[in-house]
Amino acid sequence: QEHLVESGGGSVESGGSLTLSCRASKFTYSTYCLAWFRQAPGKEREPVATIDMQDRTSYVDSVKGRFTVSQGNAENTVYLQMNSLKPEDTAMYYCAAVSSYGCGTRLGRYNFWGQGTQVTVSS
Which one-letter DSSP state was computed for residue 89? Predict the structure, then answer.
């Protein structure tokens, strides 16, 4: 059973940085997409960044230039480096994965999800 576990969340001041990690255990597919989503209180879950098996990435406009998604040397690990954090980045951040070709922004595209890690940015 594939299992995603996020870590690295916390509380920072505006302008600070955090790096989130997601380890996808038993996720051994050669064709895949890994993604980060976030959900703020009272809002819908939204896509933040995606990366596929060829390291092609995409970002939501609000984080471009501030966030970087990457895959680690450790197998099945994806990171989200978040710089210049703003209070509006405060949310629960979720790692997601799909075991087929092509990333996307729809929640239903992804068939594996982590439990989330909280990021809080104070002004």
Answer: G
The confidence score (pLDDT) of residue 106 equals 95
The CA radius of gyration of the chain, in Å to the nearest whole number, is 13
Question: DSSP letter at 83?
Answer: -
Give the tokens for residue 86: 């703003």
Which percentage of the chain shows pLDDT scores above 90? 85
Parts of the chain with a pLDDT under 70? 74-75
**What is the secondary structure of 23-42 as a DSSP string?**
EEET---SS-EEEEEEE-TT
**Sign of CA pseudo-dihedral 58, 67, 39, 116:** positive
Specify the amino acid at residue 26.
K
